[in-house]
């Protein structure tokens, strides 16, 4: 049975380490939120508080399911990962689990082992900032192919269904691959960081007040009545 959703490739890069992964997915839902933040100061004798604008936080939340082996042909050929030719359904599921494991590891920082002072310690060398691309789903903006974000949500909803396994045991090492035949569902989301000029309205020579990226955030020019 075909999975309902949009078939795409989830591509991630761990900014600190440079590690990359490519996971074929079926996108079930995608939500993008822009939330302005204000500071409210109450003053005695004033009916309304004094409101001071702080910033606008832009976040996204994506619910996905790993692409089944039977539907791999629905992923654009240019986006298929290297493991597509590794074998049949069992090998495909193992590779999917390995790629999902890479996403899990990307939630952690890059560390540095330091032995100075005689006491070995692990120091944080770089935070787990991620670069993400989901072609046809996630809209970075004009002139951008990806989005850099602070990961705040990563939840694997289904790890394994012991009543519906797709696995061939060839040795003890295969015991670690409890891969469900119908795949994994997971959520990924966080706060988007703007790579170039921060979004906002700007006074422009000869053009009046304009938003500094006309096609933000959906790739088409916004339309105003005045």
Could you outline the blueprint of secondary structure elements for this entry?
Layout: E1 6-14, E2 20-41, E3 50-66, H1 89-105, E4 110-114, E5 121-126, E6 130-134, E7 147-156, E8 185-193, E9 201-204, E10 208-211
Antiparallel strand pairs: 1-2, 1-6, 2-3, 3-8, 4-5, 6-7, 7-8, 9-10
Give structural notes.
The protein is mainly beta and 226 residues long. It has one helix spanning 89-105; strands spanning 6-14, 20-41, 50-66, 110-114, 121-126, 130-134, 147-156, 185-193, 201-204, 208-211. The chain folds into two domains: 6-195, Elongation Factor Tu (Ef-tu), domain 3 (Beta Barrel), CATH 2.40.30.200; 202-226, no CATH class. It has one helix and ten strands, in the order βββαβββββββ. The strands form three sheets. It has a six-stranded antiparallel β-barrel. The protein has a two-stranded antiparallel sheet with strand order 4-5. The chain is globular and about 70 Å long. It starts with 5 loop residues before the first strand and ends in a 15-residue tail after the last strand. The mean pLDDT is 83.
């Amino acid at each position: 049975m075909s999975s309902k959703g949009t078939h795409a490739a989830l591509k991630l890069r761990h900014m600190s380490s440079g590690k990359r992964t490519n996971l074929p997915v079926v996108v079930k839902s995608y939500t993008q939120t822009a939330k302005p933040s204000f500071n409210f100061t109450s003053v005695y004798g004033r009916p309304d508080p004094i409101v001071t604008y702080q910033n606008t936080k832009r976040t996204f939340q994506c619910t996905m399911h790993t692409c089944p082996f039977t539907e791999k042909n629905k992923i654009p050929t240019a986006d298929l990962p290297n493991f597509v030719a590794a074998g049949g359904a069992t090998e495909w599921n193992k590779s999917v689990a390995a790629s999902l494991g890479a996403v899990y590891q990307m939630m952690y920082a890059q560390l540095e082992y330091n032995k100075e002072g005689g006491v070995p310690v692990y120091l944080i060398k770089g935070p787990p900032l991620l670069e993400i691309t989901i072609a046809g789903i996630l809209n970075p903006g004009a002139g951008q192919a990806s989005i850099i974000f602070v990961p705040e949500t990563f939840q694997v909803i289904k790890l394994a269904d012991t009543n519906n396994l797709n696995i061939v045991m060839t040795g003890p090492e295969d015991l670690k691959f409890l891969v469900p035949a119908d795949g994994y569902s997971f959520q990924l989301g966080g706060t988007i960081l703007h790579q170039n000029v921060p979004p906002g309205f700007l006074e422009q020579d000869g053009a009046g007040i304009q938003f500094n990226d006309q096609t933000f955030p959906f790739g088409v020019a916004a339309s105003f009545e005045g």
